[in-house]
Amino acid sequence: MSPRWITLVLAALLAAALSGCAALGGGTNGSAESRADARTVARADRTHEVPTPRRRERVVGGWPTPEQAVRAFATAYVNWTAANVSARLKALARRSIGQARATLELQAREVAADRELHRGRIANTGTVEAVGALTGSPHRYAVVTRERTSATDDAAYRGLASEWHVSVATVTLLGRRWVLSGWQPES
Fold it and tell me: I want to staple 78 with a disulfide (CB 3.0 to 4.6 A). Which of 21, 73, 126, 167 is the partner?
């Protein structure tokens, strides 16, 4: 069989299957459900994302105030070694939800596989210098840290000065505890 002939047969089978679905009620008949499906498809075409129901995320712990949540999270986030960074990111992910959790889980997988990070025994130390609520943005905070990256076995990091960094944290109240739902390093 030639490739063109196979394509024609597959197209005919697909057309038959689709016409059968329409005959069974799967076609668009103007119902609310089909209009909702059309809106979902249009949104997916526009945003390249398909909305899905939120899954319930279990969170370990939390903090009594938004500021404590932000400060504790940021302190843990900026202090790590090559040997513990993946575990620390996973622990922070378990204490977070939403975008913050997804980002931390991805970062944990990436650093676990980062051979240069482990070979150079790279580490980061830092302090949270300031946490402040962003005006007009409820539950969002600017976080200023001062950090120093070093390495035991990589000359590229020797003698580096501390640097200032700014991140934006978003917190959410779950029950009576605050957790991070967004973490966006800006510099």
Answer: 126
